[in-house]
Amino acid sequence: MQAKKRYLLLFASCAFLAYWYFGGYRLKSSNFTPEEHLPSFVNLSQISTGSALKEREKTPINNKLCSMETCFDFSRCQNGFRVFVYPPEDNSVPSPSYQKLLNVLIESRYYTADPRLACLFVLSIDTLDRDRLSNDYVRDMQSRLQHLPHWNNGLNHVIFNLYSGTWPNYTENNLDFNYGMAILAKASMSDSHMRPGFDISIPLFHKIHPEKGGEVGAVIANSMPLQKSYLLAFKGKRYVHGIGSDTRNSLYHLHNRKDMIMVTTCRHGKSWKDMKDERCDQDNKEYDKYDYEVLLQNSTFCLVPRGRRLGSFRFLEALQAGCIPVLLSNGWALPFAQVIDWSKAAIWADERLLLQVPYVVRSVSPAKILQLRQQTQVLWDRYFSSIEKIVYTTLEIIRERLPNETFRDATVWNSLPGALVTLPSFSDSPENFPFQVDYNNDEGFTAIIYCQLGLSLTPSAPLYRLVTNVARSKYVSKIIVVWSNDKRPPTRSRWPPLPHNISLHVIQPEGEPTKPSISQRFYPHPQIETAAVLSLDEDSVLTTDEVDFAFIVWRQFPDRVVGYPARSHYWDDTKATWGYTSKWTNDYSIVLTGAAFYHRYYNVLYTEWLSPLLHKTVEQSQNCEDILMNFLVSHVTRRPPVKVTQRKQYKEQPTVGSWSPWNDPDHFIQRQTCLNTFAAVFGYMPLLRSNLRLDPVLFKDPVSNKRKKYRKIELVGS
Hints:
Layout: H1 2-31, H2 53-58, E1 83-85, H3 96-106, E2 120-122, H4 141-146, E3 157-161, E4 183-186, E5 200-201, E6 230-237, H5 245-249, E7 260-265, H6 272-275, H7 280-287, H8 292-297, E8 299-305, H9 314-321, E9 324-328, E10 347-348, H10 357-362, H11 366-384, H12 387-399, H13 410-413, E11 445-451, H14 462-471, E12 476-483, E13 503-507, E14 532-537, H15 544-556, E15 562-563, E16 566-572, E17 577-581, E18 590-591, E19 595-599, H16 601-609, H17 612-621, H18 625-637, E20 642-644, H19 667-682, E21 693-694
Pathway: Protein modification; protein glycosylation
Pfam families: Exostosin_GT47 (PF03016), Glyco_transf_64 (PF09258)
GO molecular function, one term: glycosyltransferase activity
């Protein structure tokens, strides 16, 4: 009996092994696909120019698995990072918010009207609100998309969206159309639905969110109490039932009427009285006791709980107010988290551990509170205060994903002045930008003399004397003359003799012979090798002492415009416009670049970063380029220029009968028009007033002149 069992067991084992070897091998062989027959989404040899489109056409791609390598054609971006906006459809009016977004794109440096040059495509069809119950909901989206000439299943398209899904489930990924391979720039995204390295989470913003500029942050340096009246606050709607109701319905447990204010109301919606619960009446009474703006401005922390969707308007409101956000929205992919380190500006809490929130906020040290609060202002001002900044940040994140594109590190994104005004194409070293405090004292400056008038070059001419005085400076490295006149520049023998260590370069820009570009003075000429640039007009009158002293001052303020001639702007209530004046006043906001130092990086920003509308204004008027440079520097730094010494007149007085643009009666009218145009394009007035003037130590002091370092400055009249 035992022998039979052994034989049966041996037979069963042999049969199983035979089946596993022959049957299993045949089973595995039937599912095996040779490598050459595998579908390929990306041709690795062509990854820098865009993956092979023919392979994509053969094998459909699951848009839920999209990445830049599988759902983006890099070859379209080889000729530059340009964005094409579809022309508006007939009888289709986008919502005000989406129209602002389109305006920002069309007026930006990214825009191209030629789809053949486009790297990205943006729809003119409003996709911000995909809630079917909304008045801004656009119907028949799928059929509209199929009629677009460049749709191609969303390849290289960016879709902006704030609201998706509708009552009662508010399904996150329900846009009511197939967005295919398009990149989603979407609010209230969750980590589970976001395609990593492809989609971008953006903030939820109000309909009144400004198109450009934006309100400044509420925190003023050195005037804010560390501990405010309330430690933690929230005032908003709560939902009696449905998605998002659990979190807000429990907030009353944290309300102590002292340092923690958590007030909610169910008084919203058409049928709130029919849906209210036993706490509604009491909640409404408590809700009416507190003013929302007062809570924002007087709370150290602001709770940001989820609503029907993961995102909330309170997130941006808290950032602007300098109220540290305490996030209560599990799974929310925070806006621009690819580049922004939110641990430096926000606190995370868990919806499931609501009662632990008071302990979390009480455990934050005073030093950490100050750091978090300051960072809220940096992020608000640089990335969130306007639709323009939100759109530009989205585009820059996409641009940095492209092959062969330089990118900024986390330090640049999370510190002033921010990534949007720090061009990685200029340098990959922070030391080469003007925002570093430490400056290389061994490096001199490059003088750029802009010659527009074409004056004769004789030993007594202003230009001749100017070159001579600048060349005597012990800090000058090179002199560049930008000859922007229809006359031929003088030969080298007619220029004053220079020391052997100082070179002279005469550049004649290309352009219309009768109307060269006035912005050529700010072109990033390759001959400029020093960080410091001394900008001069050909008829400027400066002594060597004045040049040296201004350079020494600029070393202390390398991010500012430092110079002699000052002007000011003011608001004219009678005309409701900005005014421009050269009168003596107790403050100034502009230092003219006819005799001023600035960092050479601003030449790059002026040429490559400013809106084409600004350049067009300068070229049409052949004026105001110096005002625009002041706008640019003040916008980047949020600081005023610096005036040195008492000199006000910095030009040689023109001879009788000679023409000068500064004698033109329309000159000031043009400049005032420019001032208002620039403010409109920037979206706000970036110029800041200052009443600071820097003079040399011992300036006009009653001591021996031999003890003074800059002796000749006192001899200069005002």
